[in-house]
Amino acid sequence: MSPQDDNQSQTPLIDHLIELRSRLLRAMIVIVVVFAALYAFSNQIYTFVAEPLMALLPPGSQMIATEVASPFLAPFKLTLIVSLFLAIPFVLYQAWAFIAPGLYAHEKKLALPLLGSSILLFYGGAAFAYYVVFPLLFQFFTTAGPADVQIMTDINAYLSFVLKLFLAFGLAFEIPVATFLLVLTGATTVQALSAKRPYVVIGCFIVGMVLTPPDVISQTLLAGPMWLLFEVGIIFARLIRRPRGGRDDVEMNDADS
Q1: Residue 82: which of 140, 163, 143 has the closest Cα?
Q2: Cβ neighbourhood burial of 254 (10 Å; 0-12, 13-18, 19+)
Q3: What are phi and psi of 107, to 5 degrees?
């Protein structure tokens, strides 16, 4: 290979790296802008996230900070995570715009609906955790202890606890998309997934045990929706219609179109 050919082969790679850097910078700028807009409301955001527990605390109980910097760092950390949470649609759009030129026409038609549904499902999982799981979970925790023990939760410990649940339920709600993609790519079939339903139910409870605190309530509240979402994924996977000739035929059809 001549030096000229070698330079020509390296040029597309350099162009892709420059574009990747540009899109990463755009995503970072949006996150920083959102964070700057929300920073003044950091304490209010933390109060909103802590409300499910604060509403159930016995009279005279309150949250505490056991470290010197916790009153500043806990709301700061939460605001940064909320900024990323709100910027996820733009971040994923940048990822989509980067890989879209390398996709076939039929893949592009599926990618945008899957991307949009993934975002909505993740938000739905976080909302389910906040409005359904937290009240039930904290109701149990605040009434199950000894009567002479005063509840005074550390703000850092509470934040770590709820962020873990937000992430667990957000990811769990992605199961329909994951199931659909497994069938779409040919990694498995609807019949095979249906036959393994008992193992899936057991797996949901195992995942709930690993991702949630060590109590039966939170494990069940995660495992139950996971199983139901698996069934939803199977329903949508049944709608898949494969071309008879496989991927090659699809590529030819895309080229003709």
Answers
A1: 163
A2: middle
A3: -70, -35
Residue 148, judged by CB atoms within 10 A of its CB (0-12, 13-18, 19+), counts as: exposed
Convert 45-101 into a string of H (helix), E (strand) and C (coil). HHHHHHHHHHCCCCCCCCCECCCCCHHHHHHHHHHHHHHHHHHHHHHHHHHHHHHHH
Tell me the pLDDT tens digit for each residue of 167-202.
888 988 888 888 888 887 777 888 888 888 888 888
Which amino acid belongs to residue 158?
Y
- The answer to whether the pTM exceeds 0.70 is yes
- What six digits make up the tokens of 58? 């016995």
Residue type, 173: F
Contact 183, 230 (CB under 8 A): no
List the structure tokens of 217: 């309530």
| Furthest CA-CA distance within the chain | 82
Contact 182, 188 (CB under 8 A): yes
Cα(109)–Cα(254) distance, integer angstroms: 11
Q: Cβ of 146: how many Cβ atoms within 10 Å?
A: 5
Cα torsion 216, 156, 38, 57 to 10°: value is: 60
* Residue 59, CA atoms < 13 Å, CB-side half-sphere: 0
pLDDT in tens, 106-158: 777 777 788 888 889 999 999 999 998 898 888 877 777 676 777 788 999 99
Calpha distance 166→218 (Å, rounded): 12
Write down the number of H helices and E strands in the chain. 11, 0
